[in-house]
Write a structure and sequence with these properties.
The protein contains four helices and no strands. With 107 residues, the chain is mainly α. It has one domain. Helix 2 crosses helix 4. GO terms for molecular function: ATP binding; kinase activity.
Length: 107
């Protein structure tokens, strides 16, 4: 899903479309379908839309609002993951540095 999210952010959804379509599709409809799919595959079942809401979104009602809300949450998730990764990297570096100091001590 991360690859699809990235392609959606970069507006490069054509990369994942079937080549046999020969560009015979409406890119706005593709974007809408991908957005609904991403909303339906959120990690927490409670965050996923009900089927009745999915139907309304596919009919053009409420998707823009729900998508904007999801994007804000997604940005926060990405930022938190990056912060955690940096903290982990820093701890890992300091652990290696600490081991090097211990190993270089007197014998």
């Amino acid at each position: 899903m991360n690859k699809v999210k990235k392609l959606e952010r970069e507006k490069r959804l054509d990369v994942i479309l079937d080549r046999n379509l020969n560009r015979n599709y409406d890119i706005q409809e593709v974007e809408m379908m991908i957005q609904v799919a991403l909303l339906c595959t959120q990690p927490s079942p409670g965050d996923r839309p009900a089927m009745s809401e999915v139907v309304r979104m596919l009919e053009g009602e409420g998707l823009a609002e729900r998508w904007e809300e999801w994007q804000h949450v997604e940005v926060s998730r990405r930022q938190e993951a990056e912060r955690l990764q940096r903290r982990f990297d820093c701890r890992e570096d300091s652990l290696y540095h600490h081991d090097a100091i211990e190993l270089s001590g007197g014998r």
